[in-house]
Amino acid sequence: MSDTDHGITTGAVARRLGVSPTTVRSWDQRYGIGPAVRADGRHRRWSPADMAMLDEMCRLTASGVPPAEAARAARLARTSAESAVAGATSDAAPARAPQARSDAPRAAPGATGVPPGRTRRPGPGSGLPLGDVRQEARGLARAAVRLDGPAMEGLLQEALAEHGLVSTWQEIMVPTLHAVGRKWESSDDRYVEVEHLLSWHISTALRRAAVTGPPAASPAAPVVLACVPGEQHTLPLEALAAGLAERGLPTRMFGAAVPAEALDAAVRRSGPAAVALWSQARSTANHALARHVAGTAFGVRGARRTPLVLLAGPGWLGRAPAPGMVRPTGLPEAIGVISRLYGEPAVSAEE
To answer: What would the mean pLDDT of 292-312 be, rounded to a whole number?
Structure first.
């Protein structure tokens, strides 16, 4: 009999719910929200009925119900789940014929179009329109709605360590950010605090990843990262900076809404191999500025060069890139384009 036959551990439960293991243990000790059965009489092992109870606890507390009251309702959820299982068991005949459905061929992992580790159905507790995402994104969403900063920090660090920067950004961070944004737009400016706190923790995780990357190999020819004038969305550039740092490539991040004069000075003073310009909307895409940057020459006479300009973000769509520019379709392609300038292999979406 495997460990899963006895239920899952508290750590696994915490990751699914987007809370810390300490929170799960505290609910058990203070409100009786614990597993019905303990392995060896001591260690917590959580059954599907226990998980239904915890999901309900998360959903209620996220909606503002006091913990003690939420706990009472959550315990009823477990009782209902156990009753349903018991009823199904008592209705089954001793013969195996009523269980024939379980003997039918099962689809292989991913055969339904849902990759392993993902689920189609939104889990309770977050209140966000997540759709088909990794379980880690659901945990992050639940922690965000609860404004649980420590849980968000822990979940993001675990995801980066397990999945790497590119997968964590594309499959966990971005879907959660989009879900919060959609909820904000459809709820009369509610959830603004959720978006701000989530963005801050994602930014912190990305900057930490950029700082802890390997030493930059070519500090004399960095990559300049900047938002065009009037553009405030910096998270995609922070993800690019972290992805380049992960590969030991040098960067200079100038952040949001960089004035044209300041960008020109930054390019001339740093002599970059590439300049990534982020534009979130067409209203901020400054094609004249991009052409100016692409034509900026530096270096000694006879060996002068110009930077490659990456038109990053949806704001640049609708017009073909001019000479000296490329328009990457996502983070892996942007990292790959820049990596090749330094003689590094391109990055794959799985890294």
So the answer is: 85
Residue with tokens 């790959």: 336
Residue with tokens 């900047």: 226
Asked if 206 and 238 count as a contact pair (C-beta separation under 8 A), the reply is yes
Helix-strand-coil percent breakdown of the chain, rounded to 5? Answer: 50, 10, 40
How many whole angstroms from its chain centre is CA 88? 38
Q: What is the pTM of this model?
A: 0.66
Q: Residues 324, 240: one domain? A: yes
Query: 55, 123 in Cβ contact below 8 A?
Result: yes
Q: Which residues of 148-182 are buried (b: 16+ CB within 10 A; e: fewer)?
A: beebbbbbbeebbeebbbbbbbbbbbbbbbbbbee
Domain holding 331: CATH number?
3.40.50.280
- 266-293, pLDDT tens digit by residue? 999 999 999 999 999 999 999 999 999 9
In a shared domain, residues 225 and 183: no
Q: What does 122-179 look like in DSSP terms, one character per residue?
A: PPTTS-S---SEEHHHHHHHHHHHTT-HHHHHHHHHHHHHHHHHHHHIIIIIHHHHHH
Half-sphere exposure of 13 (CA within 13 A, CB side): 29
How far apart CA 168 and CA 184 sit, in angstroms, is 23
Domain contains 321: yes
Task: Give yes or no for residue 228 having a pLDDT over 50.
Answer: yes
Residue 132: Cβ within 10 Å count: 14
Token pair 């939420």: residue: 70
- The verdict on residue 222 lying in a domain is yes
Label the pairing between strands 133-134 and 118-119: antiparallel
Amino acid in position 3: D
Q: Which residues of 310-346 are buried (b: 16+ CB within 10 A; e: fewer)?
A: bbbbebbeeeeeeeebebbeebbbbbbbbbebbebee
